[in-house]
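[User] Could I get a sequence and structure tokens?

[Assistant]
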Amino acid sequence: MSAAQKIHFEEQSTECPFNEREIEVIKWAAEGKTAGETGLIMGISQDIVRTITQRAGYKINAYNKVNLVAKSLRNGWIA
């Protein structure tokens, strides 16, 4: 079995599971912004940014922020 065959991508719904605030936070994460930087940009605390990121990740079974961004890009939920 090749390495490519070992990789399993979960099938996700094509309907975006995120609300507008979650999408904005994920987009800033995709740009490389930290929770603190995103909070300053959005006018919210970094703790709220972390909570939004965590809840968005739970919705799609992402195990960290990088995985959240990757799955979101792959499914077309952010651009």
Notes: The CA atoms of residues 29 and 69 lie 7 Å apart. The mean pLDDT is 89.
